[in-house]
């Protein structure tokens, strides 16, 4: 009888743990909206142009990409543009190809030098000052090139970089969208159940 009561107590504890685990897993992978891609950048920006958003925001979905011009002043007060990227797809974004008049004609006054306390990702090889923490570039000519993101932009994630002008929103070329799909909430919940069951099994085997 005592052994039966002990087993019932263990079962109740396991149920309580699972009740906590499953909602947490679903919340963590339910696609909760991320902050805007330039939110953290603007907290460091010291260029004095009164920016409240990215100059241009690129949103990537599973069906392609779109861009919005946010009607902000150039961050350098002349023509340079702060570009934000929001990954609203189920893939990792490694790179984006862009074109536009003179946008890759870098002059050494990228967004990095306008950010107080800026720290570049140690795995990012960029030396242009335009890449932000993670962005680096492969330039074909002043009008065409590709921005690469060190480590990629995860689904639901954001990043930023800068250019010498606004990209042509009619000629996006998404060149590096790849990686595995995000597990569905049900899959995460099943994984949690499996791990909890394995843990209970191990405890029983030690008794």
Describe the structure.
By secondary structure, this protein is of the alpha+beta class. It has 3 helices and 8 strands; from the N terminus they run ααββββββββα. It has a 4-stranded mixed sheet, with no helix packed on it. Strands 5-6-4-8 form a 4-stranded antiparallel sheet, with no helix packed on it. It has 2 domains: 2-31 and 189-206, no CATH class; 39-178, no CATH class. It has helices at residues 2-28, 39-42, 185-206; strands at residues 56-61, 64-69, 81-87, 92-99, 135-141, 144-153, 158-163, 177-178. Helix 1 packs antiparallel against helix 3 (185-206). Mean pLDDT is 78; it is low at 17-34 and 178-191.
Q: Taking strands numbered 1, 2, ... along the chain, how are they ordered across the largest sheet?
A: 2-1-3-7
The whole-number mean of residue pLDDT values reads 78
Query: SSE order in H/E notation?
Result: HHEEEEEEEEH
* Rg calculated over all Cα atoms: 23 Å
Main sheet characteristics: 4 strands, mixed
Distance between the termini: 17 Å
Helices, by number, come to: 3
| Spans where pLDDT lies below 50 across 5 or more residues | 17-34, 178-191
């Amino acid at each position: 009888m005592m052994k039966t009561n002990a087993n019932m107590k263990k079962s109740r504890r396991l149920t309580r743990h699972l009740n906590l685990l499953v909602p947490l897993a679903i919340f963590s992978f339910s696609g909760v909206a991320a902050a805007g891609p330039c939110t953290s950048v603007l907290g460091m920006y010291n260029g004095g142009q009164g920016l409240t958003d990215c100059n241009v925001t690129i949103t990537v979905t599973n069906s392609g990409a779109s861009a919005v011009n946010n009607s902000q002043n150039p961050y350098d007060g002349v023509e340079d543009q702060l570009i934000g990227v929001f990954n609203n797809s189920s893939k990792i974004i490694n790179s984006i190809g862009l074109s536009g008049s003179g946008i890759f004609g870098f002059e050494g006054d990228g967004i990095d030098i306008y950010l107080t306390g800026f720290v570049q990702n140690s795995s990012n090889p960029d030396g242009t000052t335009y890449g932000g923490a993670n962005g680096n570039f492969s330039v074909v000519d002043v009008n065409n090139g590709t921005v690469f993101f060190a480590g990629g932009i995860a689904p639901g994630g954001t990043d930023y970089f800068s250019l010498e002008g606004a990209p042509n929103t009619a000629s996006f070329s998404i060149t590096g969208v790849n990686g595995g799909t995000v597990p569905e909430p049900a899959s995460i919940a099943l994984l949690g159940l499996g791990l909890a069951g394995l843990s209970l099994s191990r405890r029983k085997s030690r008794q």
